[in-house]
C-alpha cells in the first residue's frame, strides 16, 4: 500500500490492492417496523476487544443509514466475529459495509448515497459494500475492480496485541515529516492489473505481489517488532510472497498451493500470543 499524502482533515491518500478473504465475520439483520429507531447488537464469538455498544462500527452504520432515510425501524444485528480487532484485516469496516449493503436490500437507497455513507464511516468501508479484488485509491473512495485474479492460498499470522490504525498512521506521518519523499503517483507493479481483462497467471501475480511494498510497515514494525520476525518465518517456510496487511500487525504469506500453505501452518511453530489462520482470497468476479 502506498501512502501518497494527507488531507487537512486527517485522511490519507492511498493506492492499494484490496482482496476479500474467505476468513470473514458473519452479519445477520432482522428489520421490523417501529415507532422509533431501535438498534440492538448481539455479539457471538470470543474475540476480545470488540465494542458491544453504540461505538461498534456495525451499530454506527445502521444508525447512519436509518437516519439518512429518516426511517423508523427496529433492527437486530447478530454479529459473529472471526476477525480480531486491530489486526489490519478490515474487520470492523467489513461489518459496517455488510450492514449498509444488507439494509439497502430491505430499504432501497441509491448507490451513490450508500457509497457516501460508507465513506463517512471510514476509508475502507466503501470497498466492503461489494467486496471483490480491486485497486483502491484516493482516500478509499475510488474502487476499480480487477479481473482474472485467482483464489490465492494464504497463511495469516497475528503477533497478538492489536495495533491501532491511528497510531500507525501517526508514526508514519512523523517519519514522513523527518525524511520527506515524493512517492510515485501510481504503483508500477500494479499498473498491468488496470488493463487486465483475462486471467492473471499465478507466476505473474506472485511477481507483482513481491514487488509491492506497504509504506506503513516501517512504522508498524517499530510499534510491533514481532512483525519482522513473522515475515522472516513466512519466507523460511516457503511463502512465495510475504507482506503486512493494511496497518498491521497481521502478516500474510501467499503460497503456490493449499498443500504448501497447510504444511507451513503445521511447521510454523507459533506459540501464544501468535495466532494463525489458513484461508484464501476470493477470486475476481468481473
Give a written overview of the molecule.
With 286 residues, this protein is α+β, with helices and mostly antiparallel strands. The chain folds into two domains: 21-131, Ribosomal Protein S5, domain 2 (2-Layer Sandwich); 153-280, 2-Layer Sandwich (Alpha-Beta Plaits). It is built from nine helices and eleven strands. The chain has helices at residues 57-68, 91-106, 111-121, 165-178, 191-195, 202-211, 217-223, 226-236, 258-267; strands spanning 2-6, 12-18, 26-33, 38-44, 73-80, 134-138, 142-145, 153-158, 241-244, 251-254, 275-280. Strands 1-2-6-7 form a four-stranded antiparallel sheet, with no helix packed on it. A four-stranded antiparallel sheet has the order 9-10-8-11. A three-stranded mixed sheet has the order 3-5-4, covered by helices on one side. Helix 1 (57-68) runs parallel beside helix 2 (91-106), helix 1 packs antiparallel against helix 3 and helix 4 packs across helix 7 (217-223). The longest helix has 16 residues, at 91-106. The radius of gyration is 19 Å and the shape is globular.
